[in-house]
Amino acid sequence: MSVVICPWCQSEISQEEGQEPDKICPVCDNELDGYRTLKLSLGEEEEEDAYEEEEAPTVSIDDDEDLSWMEEEALESSEELEQFEETLEELLNEQEVVPECPSCREYMVEAGERLISAEEFKPRVPESLGVPLVEAPFKLTMYVCPSCFTVQSALGDTHRQRMVRSLSEPGAQQGGRRNGNA
Fold it and tell me: Which sequence ranges form a coiled-coil region, renumbered to this chain (predicted)?
């Protein structure tokens, strides 16, 4: 029994002796013959990859063509990406709280605060407490994901502490027991 490893999903595919090898991976439905790569020659002699099993199709570009714009664009984009990552790391290191994005699990960057006024917010008053959990005006800290640009907000520190204090007061606990919610 021989084992073939899919180059796409890294799954092990067992094959019986005497049986013809699969041409398509049963897990990811990609061809098992190898990657379909495209090599570009930019006028410089490139060394052949010693580990390459199959010859990949090659596209040659005339030396007469001006490829400096491609090289400059690639260099600029890689420099921009490096600068972006460095700046992002600095911003994340400055933050006290670094939440994960609920969509893509990247770390989120603090974008600022938003003040919610009494006109914008109508608090819910739980029967068990008799007072609202949060009263306006209050601040929300806004976070932005640098990967998928999801925006998330969290209650500001001062108002978090105020909410914890209101929930831990003896009246709040008695009110919860009185209604059978404790």
Answer: 67-94
